[in-house]
Amino acid sequence: MIDARIKFRHLQTFVEVARQKSVVKAADLLNVTQPAVTKTIRELEEVLGVSVFERDGRGIKITRYGEVFLRHAGAALTALRQGLDSVSQERSGEGPPIRVGALPTVSTRIMPRAIALFLEEKTGARLKIVTGENAVLLEQLRVGDLDLVVGRLAAPDRMTGFSFEHLYSEQVVFAVRAGHPLLSGKQSVFAHLGDYPVLMPTRASIIRPFVERYLIANGIAGLPNQIETVSDSFGRAFVRSSDAIWIISNGVIATDIEDGLLTALPIDTSETKGPVGLTMRTDAIPSLPLSILMQTIREAAEAVTAKA
């Protein structure tokens, strides 16, 4: 039986604190005071009989009990949001919204084709496509702000409560501008990698561990001119106007390579290959429009990989 003492504000506050990992940030987003957030969390803990957060240095982190409750609280808020959306849609005649998190590796080649196919189905559904780092998108998926994440498979410790459908695999490439000195074949790529600025995936990105292992395996312990970035627009502009080297998933710059705007250095990076696919919450039941979108994503992925 559901304890009548648990209110919507308890779930909303708990999910936002878990998402922000900060009482102060959650209070700002919820437009309430910090003491009000603290009081609400304490009320929730009294009802549950366990602590859902604990101190972690100067911040806070969610407890094991909190992790368990978060999966259900996120699902409950999602269900409520869908119910409200359904009523609103019924009154306005609009289709249900679909919120998709797309990692950079699929944003350029897969998603445009998938969305074009989806629109041909005329479901009437409203689409929201967001991009960002994998950790951020998965957290939004966990709490119900997203319905689907498309991209590389996350690390096992981040996949609790999620299901993954494999579509294809891709590897990391070292991209440079046409005419880059390392393309001449006169210099060893690994011996001279440190002579140029190198754009690296951030530490929070999925491919960072693959890249680090690959570099170490090839005798590179560190790079003196390293720049961490998740910005595709910066990466493209900087590499095309300099001798920088961009270490990035192939899917992000495949079109640039096909168009001759960028070139992949002639090195074997097959050991960096990893699965790309669809990630959903295990407790989620996709709506008809979302199911159709997932199918168009599968078709788009199949078409792209067939060309490879």
UniProtKB/TrEMBL annotation:
Lineage, broadest ranks: Bacteria, Pseudomonadati, Pseudomonadota, Alphaproteobacteria, Hyphomicrobiales
Species: Sinorhizobium glycinis
Entry keyword Transcription regulation: yes
Annotated Gene Ontology cellular component terms: cytosol
InterPro entries: HTH-type_LysR_regulators, LysR_HTH_N, LysR_subst-bd, TF_PcaQ, WH-like_DNA-bd_sf, WH_DNA-bd_sf
Domain HTH lysR-type: start-end pairs: 6-63
Keywords: Activator, DNA-binding, Transcription, Transcription regulation
UniProt-recorded name of the protein: HTH-type transcriptional regulator PcaQ
Function: Activates transcription of the pcaDCHGB operon for the catabolism of the phenolic compound protocatechuate.
Biological process annotations from GO: 3,4-dihydroxybenzoate catabolic process; positive regulation of DNA-templated transcription
GO molecular function, one term: DNA-binding transcription factor activity
Record-linked Pfam families: HTH_1, LysR_substrate
Sequence similarity: Belongs to the LysR transcriptional regulatory family.
PROSITE patterns: HTH_LYSR
